[in-house]
Amino acid sequence: xxxxxxxxxxxxxxxxxxxxxxxxxxxxxxxxxxxxxxxxxxxxxxxxxxxxxxxxxxxxxxxxxxxxxxxxxxxxxxxxxxxxxxxxxxxxxxxxxxxxxxxxxxxxxxxxxxxxxxxxxxxxxxxxxxxxxxxxxxxxxxxxxxxxxxxxxxxxxxxxxxxxxxxxxxxxxxxxxxxxxxxxxxxxxxxxxxxxxxxxxxxxxxxxxxxxxxxxxxxxxxxxxxxxxxxxxxxxxxxxxxxxxxxxxxxxxxxxxxxxxxxxxxxxxxxxxxxxxxxxxxxxxxxxxxxxxxxxxxxxxxxxxxxxxxxxxxxxxxxxxxxxxxxxxxxxxxxxxxxxxxxxxxxxxxxxxxxxxxxxxxxxxxxxxxxxxxxxxxxxxxxxxxxxxxxxxxxxxxxxxxxxxxxxxxxxxxxxxxxxxxxxxxxxxxxxxxxxxxxxxxxxxxxxxxxxxxxxxxxxxxxxxxxxxxxxxxxxxxxxxxxxxxxxxxxxxxxxxxxxxxxxxxxxxxxxxxxxxxxxxxxxxxxxxxxxxxxxxxxxxxxxxxxxxxxxxxxxxxxxxxxxxxxxxxxxxxxxxxxxxxxxxxxxxxxxxxxxxxxxxxxxxxxxxxxxxxxxxxxxxxxxxxxxxxxxxxxxxxxxxxxxxxxxxxxxxxxxxxxxxxxxxxxxxxxxxxxxxxxxxxxxxxxx
Length: 688
Ligand code: ADP
Ligand code: MG
Known about the structure:
Blueprint lengths: L3 H4 L4 H9 L5 H5 L5 E4 L14 E16 L1 E10 L2 E8 L3 H6 L5 E11 L2 E5 L2 E4 L1 H5 L7 E4 L4 H5 L4 H15 L9 H7 L4 H9 L4 H32 L10 H12 L7 H14 L6 E6 L5 H14 L3 E5 L3 H14 L8 E4 L5 H12 L5 E4 L13 E6 L7 H8 L6 E6 L5 H7 L4 E5 L10 E6 L3 H13 L3 E5 L14 H12 L5 E4 L5 H12 L5 E4 L12 E7 L6 H8 L10 E6 L5 H12 L3 H12 L20 H17 L1 H7 L5 H7 L7
Parallel strand pairs: 4-6, 9-14, 9-15, 10-12, 10-13, 11-12, 13-14, 16-21, 17-19, 17-20, 18-19, 20-21
Antiparallel strand pairs: 1-8, 2-3, 2-5, 3-4, 5-6, 5-7
The structure holds adenosine-5'-diphosphate and magnesium ion.
């Protein structure tokens, strides 16, 4: 690797500053990527811009002023294409005052706001580019902007000087850069070679070129990321599982009997999922599965059948559910599908067991007498011990953190894992976020399901909606009405559960049996309300999103959602999944408020357009990006520098494939502990 000092282009001071920023050699320098490009051919017309817009302005500083009113306020006035705009910085240091001088050319970008009646930026990002205009070779249409710190500037490293140095280095040393991707692969993948990409990322002629360059660099990042995933998988395969799952005729017969005894037929996907799970469980190493299936696709049954197989081997299973209601429901389902009296030792562990009961349960589990523990977070507590925990099932896995999963896992020696989720994520993201899990999909819905009729109504139409609710209840059906918040708040006129419940109870449906369900009720109260709803004693359940996850009441056929714009797309889809579970035509009624954000509207439209959770996940991803999607935040993939999965998602599959074709690349990058380390050290650019 060629150090920056060897190039002879940097002063001692500059080397010191750069090395503090971890830019020590040529590779680091080439990967000091522009943080932004400004396309000068695109003249911003501020007349068409409104407060709230994200804009970039390139212009001249006409005036600069520091005010001391309680705190320092530094304001500059910028003239750009004949428009005037202000940029204001609170608590600005003297540094800014020294840099942002009248006459300099500056690029500013951020959100437009109206401040003191003037079009303004508040604390925008900025870089000085005054030296750009005078220099012919830098006055192209596309101006890359580098992050320039105060220390860099003090060492005479400006946007322009940095770019000149990068250019010289690239010219002098590019012959020595080697590309780990062979030419034929570059062609097949439609990727730039690395030197071309470096040229285009630093000196683009068009915006399209910057994207081409980034695409190539994103690929590098995704390859490295996949190396890590492959390593994790390989490491798991090295582990010798402490137990063996084997298929034998008795067990096969029992499963067949059980399945044929069900009141319905398994879907093809359910059968395939069970087949795959059983086959993989026979491996000599632990297996980690992610079972992804839309709401109502029948995941519980798949999980319970798998659990039964382990239990028949005298191995223990822990089934973790996010809420007491769900834990109870799974417990009940399990007892229902088993032939009466055929099973002892299924324990339900929830927070509030009486001490005596709990002690008994814990003892039976730690002695290995009970084989299945279904429960909530209570399962994770230190006091819970198993004799031979062999399978962990996590329902609605996005509701649990990695630590909780690991804590539960540590209660066994080499347990298998089955994670389940009803918020499917786009396929590309599966690879990115769950690369070390084997995905299994339940796409097929049980045959008996009717399409849910989803409609958007206005708040002014509530009376009509209530009439429809009454009609279905009279026919014997049950209804959910969902609110985003429990209590009214001062600064919002949003309808809340508490304020509306009394209206519904006293005025709208005085003759119907209403129930209330929300997160502030005790576990007992919640369970009682839910049980009453299941038993049909409650006709209209007025609730918050406590009902969101997994509740199964086939007789309910209408769900009314107030302020649906306040919910995320996957949440809305989950809520809708509470109905359409029985044989009755079901309805999801979204009661839109008068004003909504564009994104809120887009979500409602998507809800009306499709019932496919996978498609909705894709829409959610496009609207909000991966970072905001449920449960993905804590994953390593958020550490990408260049790759944006919204844009480069499909490349991830190519990266995985490329690695499989090129085990030498896998070996070259092996041994890295995390993606950041890999990215910093891994990309070997230079031959000798
Ligand atoms: P989810 O995948 O959302 O967890 P559940 O496992 O709660 O779905 O199943 C929803 C409902 O569908 C339950 O009442 C379950 O008994 C029922 N069910 C499961 N599989 C089938 C099937 N193959 N045919 C009909 N109903 C099914
Ligand atoms: Mg479920």
